[in-house]
């Protein structure tokens, strides 16, 4: 009976017999906690609740370490492109994946859009400090709990990896915990800055540099033969938003 309820996950870990119930509970808890905290991270970044957000959530569940690749891409982009007037808060927020709101006074709040902060020139966006209230305190507490849990799980994963006692399931759980650790680190930076970025969509907020590139992006997405089908599919979901943005004067 004991043999049917326990198993060895790794051939090199013959001395460590793990219960099946413990394996299932641990795996489910890591997946649920990591995906939920990533959803909280998207909320802090002000990513709109669209099909793109669902794709990002599924992408994190499949490839958790992709958050590190995106962070590196943003850092390289900000270092490569000259951004006169960029503050350290702007650079840090943009690297962590914060989106800026494009609020139009002539429209209702439900129609206001958001766009990644690094797409907007520093001179065309302003920062607003948010209140340090009970909601902020609760978010800090939630993030600290998730950060500690992810860091401990990542430590156990690297320890098993070092002792060559790591199974495929350990790799999946450890990689997800590592991605969650990086995500919670970015979330802590965002919430400690406690800043909302806003640009007036009735003005030429994109500037010459960004307006030209936004038009290029839109026209490329209209040519599916020139791009990867997956990229085109995601872009076509937001063609209406892109068209409304690039039609603004730059």
Please specify the SSE layout and strand pairing.
Elements: E1 6-7, E2 18-19, H1 20-44, H2 51-62, H3 66-80, H4 88-95, E3 99-103, E4 113-116, E5 126-129, H5 134-162, H6 168-193, E6 195-200, H7 207-221, H8 229-236, H9 239-246
Helix pairs in contact: 1-2, 1-6, 5-6, 7-9
Radius of gyration: 22 Å
Record field, number of beta strands: 6
Total number of helical segments?
A: 9
Distance between the termini: 72 Å
Instruction: Give the SSE string.
Output: EEHHHHEEEHHEHHH
pLDDT averaged residue by residue:
74
Query: Judging from the principal axes of the Cα atoms, what is the shape?
Result: elongated
Output the structural class.
alpha+beta
- Main beta sheet strand tally, sense and closure: 4 strands, mixed
User: In percent, how helical is the residue content?
Assistant: 55-70%
Question: What's the arrangement of strands in the largest beta sheet?
Answer: 4-3-6-5
Low-confidence stretches: 1-8, 201-213, 220-235, 246-250
The number of domains is 2
Strand content: 5-15%
